[in-house]
Design a protein that fits this description.
mainly beta; Jelly Rolls; 10-stranded antiparallel sheet; two-stranded antiparallel sheet; 12 strands; globular
Length: about 220
């Protein structure tokens, strides 16, 4: 399915959302900063708590393998991401990754370009737990209740076609190079991404400050 379509695909036989196994704590932004510096350890702890809440398996060394970022915003609870890369095969150009968003957290608007020997990435997302507003190109229909954080491009985005995705919903990018972003629901979101090969150097963000901070990492 393309993001330009209004009707999501619900996978036949998809597993029902796992029972919650631990309370989901309230996350305060101050928790993730120590003397003004982003505390990756605290961010990873929060993501592990999200996993346990949804019954997602916490594999050995999971915390060690997580990548977390606030994209230099200083507002991790508003704009940020955690990810576990399972495979990124540059030779055969395929990738598998899980994305983790805290409740109400935004994955910033971005797009993908060719980088080195890698073509521009194209991708699809299967929501596994929680829910996510997956936004891309198409007729604007973004719900008024979704407020873009000021720390993201002064509260601005350029694409506003939304599909509200629950567990078992699979969506794919409507075209290579399309802008897209996500916004997690009240219980956060755990999303499996399948894609062509990923390259950090091939990611471009709408917000110039985020773009600079991300590429500098």
């Amino acid at each position: 399915m393309k993001l330009s379509s209004l009707l999501p695909i619900v996978l036949i036989g998809a597993a029902v959302q796992a029972a919650e196994t631990a309370p989901l704590p309230r996350f305060s932004n101050e928790t993730f900063y120590k003397k003004g510096k982003f505390d990756e350890g605290k961010a990873k702890d929060a993501v592990i708590a999200l996993m346990k809440y949804h019954g997602y398996p916490v594999y050995p060394d999971m915390k060690k393998q997580l990548w977390v970022s606030d994209y230099g915003t200083g507002q991790f609870t508003q704009v940020g991401l955690a990810a576990r890369m399972w495979c990124n095969n540059e030779r055969d150009r395929y990738m598998l990754m899980d994305l983790f968003l805290l409740p109400g957290q935004m994955l910033p608007e971005h797009w993908h370009v060719a980088s080195g020997k890698n073509p521009a990435k194209t991708e699809g997302w299967l929501v596994r737990y929680g829910s996510a507003h997956i936004v891309g190109e198409g007729t604007p229909n973004l719900k008024s209740g979704i407020v873009i954080p000021k720390c993201h491009n002064n509260g601005q985005v350029t694409v506003r076609h939304e599909v509200f995705a629950k567990p078992g919903t699979f969506l794919q990018l409507n075209r290579v190079g399309a802008h897209h972003w996500q916004f997690a629901g009240p219980a956060g979101a755990i999303v499996t991404e399948v894609a062509t090969v990923h390259s950090d150097k091939g990611v471009r963000h709408l917000d110039p400050a985020i773009n600079r901070n991300f590429l500098a990492q």
